[in-house]
Design a protein that fits this description.
The complex is a heterodimer of chains A (293) and B (83).
Chain A (H helix, E strand, L loop, with lengths): L2 H8 L3 E3 L6 E3 L1 H20 L3 E3 L4 E3 H6 L2 H4 L6 E5 L10 H6 L1 E8 L7 H7 L8 E10 L12 E11 L1 H21 L5 E4 L6 H13 L3 E9 L2 E12 L1 H5 L12 E8 H12 L8 H6 L3
Parallel strand pairs in A: 3-7
Antiparallel strand pairs in A: 1-2, 4-6, 5-6, 7-8, 8-12, 9-10, 10-11, 11-12
Helix pairs in contact in A: 2-10
Chain B lengths: L2 H18 L19 H15 L16 H8 L5
Helix pairs in contact in B: 1-2
Classes of the chains: A alpha+beta (293), B mainly alpha (83).
């Protein structure tokens, strides 16, 4: 356990909940998360991104249509509910587990997944495409003691859907904007080629392909003693999501691509605490102003 | 393993890989694949063949295009896995 992790818990900034990767949060921690997200929302408004809000669950069918079961089965967590056929209430946890079954809900693993069926339901993608922003709790089954690998965390995403050129241009403009955003938090990062944790042997090929084509970059930022983690990712899905959701352009000749830029809010907050300490009163005035503290 | 030994093991693999795809390349000591016009699928296949040939599994951070485009970079990366 690192000194930083110990301090975050001893000083009651985060509260371990008895399982790996699940934490209660102090008002101080939430204030930083909310401050970071508020500034990202300012940017979203300036970019005229359409803000949409989803619950932290999504339908099993939407997740299936997104190809998530095949690509990332190891990260999925579903919601079970008690069957309505029992005559009496369960007496123990294991009794409840025996009498419960998978519901039609899954925990959302990435904030942008509910966006694509929403866009599909609106019909053809208009010229100029679409830009949406969404913030959601996400869940990934990755048990770890690292504070930066929480199983339940929040992600603010900017999702661009449009022509191949529009999507790649969108991603590229975020490289410098993201660095500017980090600078406002007094942080620096390193942008590196990355890959998603695709499952299995076939996933290995997808990982290599993603890296060779540089379809994913991550901004690595110090989040613990001698430890960096991806706090922002820049993703070009090419036509992968458009094919899965049959997104069509109003111009029959044009192909639809999608991409997203995702900010890990808990990780960014951890980076702020690591860099500036656990006492907000001692932070630089510029940072407190930026976070609207 | 000496760099020369690695080169000797690598050359037949690269030679056959490029021939199969119709590329002509002079695999001298400072070969460079940048100008050949390999597609990303070619590079994926090359990386998988290198892993199989040397019986290694490359770390994610080593799978970047620049590590597979010239002799020096590839040998430097392989030396991480092969003593």
């Amino acid at each position: 356990m690192t000194v930083f992790r110990t301090s975050m818990i001893d000083k009651r900034v985060l509260y371990p909940l008895g399982v790996q990767g699940l934490y209660g949060r102090s008002d101080l921690f939430e204030g930083v998360v909310e401050g970071i997200d508020a500034r990202l929302k300012d940017w979203a408004r300036a970019m005229e991104a359409e803000a949409v809000h989803f619950p932290p669950e999504m339908t099993s069918q939407t997740l299936a249509s997104s190809g998530y079961y095949k690509s990332f089965p190891q990260l999925i967590a579903g919601v079970h509910t008690f069957c309505d056929c029992a005559d009496e209430a369960p007496k123990t946890l294991s009794d409840w587990q025996t009498k419960s079954s998978p519901s039609e809900f899954m925990l959302t693993p990435a904030a942008c997944y509910p966006v694509y069926p929403l866009v599909k339901a609106r019909g053809q993608v208009p010229a100029g495409g679409a830009l949406l922003t969404v913030m959601s709790y996400c869940f990934r089954a990755e048990a770890s003691n690292d504070l930066h690998r929480q199983q339940s965390f929040r992600m603010r995403e900017f999702v661009r859907i449009g022509s191949p050129a529009e999507v790649e241009e969108f991603r590229r403009t975020w490289y410098s904007k993201a660095a500017d955003f980090l600078a406002e938090l007094g942080l620096t990062g390193t942008r590196e080629v990355a890959n998603d944790p695709f499952f299995g042997k076939e996933g290995r090929i997808l990982k290599i392909n993603q890296r060779v084509d540089e379809l994913k970059y991550e901004m690595l930022v110090p989040v613990d003693v001698d430890q960096e983690a991806a706090c922002i990712s820049f993703n070009n899905h090419l036509d992968a999501m458009a094919r899965k959701w049959d997104l069509q352009s109003t111009d029959a000749e044009s192909q639809i691509h999608s991409g997203c830029v995702a900010f890990g809010l808990e990780r960014l907050a951890l980076a702020v605490f690591l860099r500036h300490g656990l006492s907000a009163a001692e932070w630089p005035d510029e940072l407190r102003t930026f976070l609207r503290w | 393993m000496q760099s020369n030994d690695l080169t000797l093991r690598l050359k037949p693999l690269l030679s056959s890989f490029l021939q199969e795809r119709g590329f002509e390349a002079n695999l001298d000591d400072d070969w460079n694949l940048r100008q050949l016009g390999l597609t990303s699928i070619d590079y994926v296949n090359l990386i998988l063949q290198i892993e199989h040939h040397f019986d290694i599994s490359l770390r994610d951070e080593h799978v970047v295009l620049s590590n597979f485009q010239d002799n020096d970079a590839l040998l430097r990366m392989l030396s991480f896995y092969i003593e």
